[in-house]
Design a protein that fits this description.
The protein has 258 residues and is an alpha/beta fold. The protein has helices spanning 19-30, 43-52, 66-79, 103-127, 152-171, 195-201, 213-223, 249-257; strands spanning 10-14, 34-39, 57-60, 83-88, 135-139, 178-184, 233-236.
Amino acid sequence: MSDAPPSPPAVLVTGGARRIGAAIARRFAAAGWRVIIHYGRSVAEAEQLAAELPGAVAIHCDLADGDAAEDMVERLASYLPDWRCLVNCASVFDADDVSRLDADTFRRAIRVNAEAPARMAQAFLAKAQAGGGRRVIQVTDQKLANPNPDFFSYTLSKHAIAGAIPMLAMGACGPDDRVYGLAPGAILASHDQSEDEAAISHRLNLLGRRTDADEVADACLWLSQGWLASGETLFIDSGQHLMAQPRDVIYLARENAA
């Protein structure tokens, strides 16, 4: 009988090198998980973060290539002995609006924000070995419940992956597996915002407070325990999704300041 300690549970965080993804990676590492940090172009940030977190590794994949994304999951599943959680946090957030869908923006949004995470979830649930139940967490957006006409392709892609969550929960899971959505509100400066603009726009919610990235990370770790019924989505947005906002808060703040 081996006296070697058991391997820590592993989590793959896509887009884990920066922003909310990095906060999620740090939170899991602090809880004793082995973190796999996926990155697209942020190689320096990914390698630096991996060096900071015990046992973490950085792995590259262009999520616009669905075949490559699925292959990455299958390769990880072949050697991770206790892979319990997949967090699909990576996304592209490029501007177009409801008056004219930009075809290139739409195709990239669908590939990165919907196709890749759906295929990765399917591969994970089919291949990963875990000591307990497996968890898929798809990071979506509060815009699902509080729609506005800005960032049209992005929003469509998030609706697509949100629609996959209950279907995956019904048809691709074992009895101990769970598939969840995690829907943040405005958290960090995004698109072409300055930090001063973000400080204003990110308080346009029911509580009038700025939601912190660590709150999203804490919620993600909580979901990894599987306390909610599979197929549910948790909103971390200080109540923003309960409002009716006619435009993205980036533009609402600028219009109010003008």
